[in-house]
Amino acid sequence: MRLQNKKVIQIVSDDFEDLELWYPVLRLREEGATVHIVGEEANKKYIGKYGVPVESEFSFQDISPNDYDAILVPGGWSPDKLRRYEEVLNMVKTMDEKQKPIGQICHAGWVLISANILRGKKVTSTPGIKDDMINAGATWLNEPVVVDGHIISSRRPPDLPDYMKAFIEVLSK
């Protein structure tokens, strides 16, 4: 198991894209990683866009990003909510400063934009936020997955296999 002893934060809020949260969580757990679901409140049920629930284990205040090896930001509409929490932005900034893997898919780029970490980076996202990514100083590419150092980005659910292969590769180093 390549990711044994690795700890990953999966942040969550309501209206996450169900597959973009669950597929990465399950793949990482299959590889031996510990993945903690972290939301505004601990032990709260959050509902995805298509009705699939997930229960948070910790609140944003309960954890320190320094205790983790990576962070995942799901897509859907939750990134628009998540980027409003200073704790979330601080988690992403800490991971960026320490060059730890940051995974973002679909609309998740909004969180990285609000954390102000995309200037000079190559990324992808859903085409719907392409202009937002470019205006944040990133170079946007229309590819299934883009890896720029520790930032791994992807467009949408059909790209999940490529996204997770790349994320697992970066995290395993």
Automatic annotation (TrEMBL):
Keywords recorded for this protein, A-Z: Glycosidase, Hydrolase, Protease
GO molecular function, one term: peptidase activity
InterPro entries with a match to the protein in the record: C56_PfpI-like, Class_I_gatase-like, DJ-1/PfpI
Gene3D superfamilies xref list: 3.40.50.880
Segments forming domain DJ-1/PfpI: 6-169
Enzyme class (EC, first level): hydrolase
Pfam families: DJ-1_PfpI
GO terms under biological process: proteolysis
Lineage top rank: taxon: Bacteria
Known EC number: 3.2.-.-
Similarity comment: family membership: Belongs to the peptidase C56 family.
Protein name, entry field: Protease I
